[in-house]
Amino acid sequence: MPHALTHDDVQAAAERIAGQVRPVAVAPLDLGAPGTPPPGRVHAALEFAQFTGSFKARGAANFIAAHREAGTLPEAGVTIASGGNAGLACAWAARAHGVRATVFLPATAPAVKVERLRRYGAEVRLTGSEYAEALAACETYAAESGALASHAYDHPFIAAGAGTLVDEIRAQLRPGHPQPLTSEQATPPDHSRSLAPASSAPSTVTALDGAEGWAYAVSGRVRGTALDDLSGEAVARTLPSLLRALDAAGTSGYGIWTPDGRAPQASWPEALLAIGAETPRVPGWRAALVDSGIGLGPVEAGLSALAALTPCLPDARRLIHGDLLSRNVLAGEAGITGVLDWGNALYGDPLYDAAWLLHWWPWYPGWRPGDLHAALLTHWRATGPTPAHLRERLHAYLLHIALDALAYCASRGRWDEVRTHVGTVLTLASAGGGESVLIPAGS
Asked: Quick one: what percent of the chain has pLDDT higher than 90?
């Protein structure tokens, strides 16, 4: 008998995918002729800013998380017949959970769709000339391989995940809740202008107060291709433009900034070593590691190695983006066109963003033909002397990024990824200062 979807299912989905998807921004629309009273109140849910560009990411994330929670996620991974938003969401969510994704499409599917799916790490199989043939092949593959069959909409976990969007919209528009501001009313706080270089951050059109303490800025339109979707060679060509933009803004303080524009730590090493403590953003990870049997040994080893590298770290107080992937960087032929979502921004050594790219480079199969190491070295040498203690600084930041990813995945119960990050932490912790295969040779 089919499962009857209830609001409890939607609430359970919201808990599962919290922190994995972006909370929706809601903006008012101006209706009617200028100078006349509006005929009604209409708001737009800006879910095009969601991961993969649509609300489908919600259902896909819940689908995989729920099956992982239930222990019903097979080694063969997930499969779906879709080249649209559902297929992209399935591939994205699978990659986020370290799960295989096999996507079936007709052989007539546009090459751009196929390439984008592959850049999300999916195996793409082209079958037949119509969708029905691809669907039949997908069903056969699921039956023979044991892969978990997903669907664009016709599954309780998919529908429940999509339903979280409605609750978020209602929460923002309920009586008594702060309402979104119109573009005429919106005046971003002074510190918001310092958090994004003028050369890369789109201008703010509307400021929004969101549910549960979230806030948003709706920007003017920026065109470009997400860094995630570029080839390795294109990423390498884009790096100088990106790094110049991130170098453009000086700041003060250390660590992740708060809504009043202040950074909490008194020094850069202190900000890095704070990764060993839990925060409201990432709660419960220490107990989760202990309960899992992995324990806190890898964390302590990573923190010890990080502490040993702190004498090589500078007192630099510059802007760090802290999340250059997840479709937050757009690029055109001449370089970057926009850098979005500064929610993870912090103040410290700008080399941190370079280490971020070095850490995640192996996770993007489409990037592997490019030479990130050479591009970084070329940029540094072209913009002045090679940074002092370059190798040790990158080593410290790679440790911090791996520890951060380990803690986040442990808090979300994504244990396959936790084990990968544990391996990275232990490898970096056992290497001598500045001695890691992730660090560019010759630096």
From this structure: 36
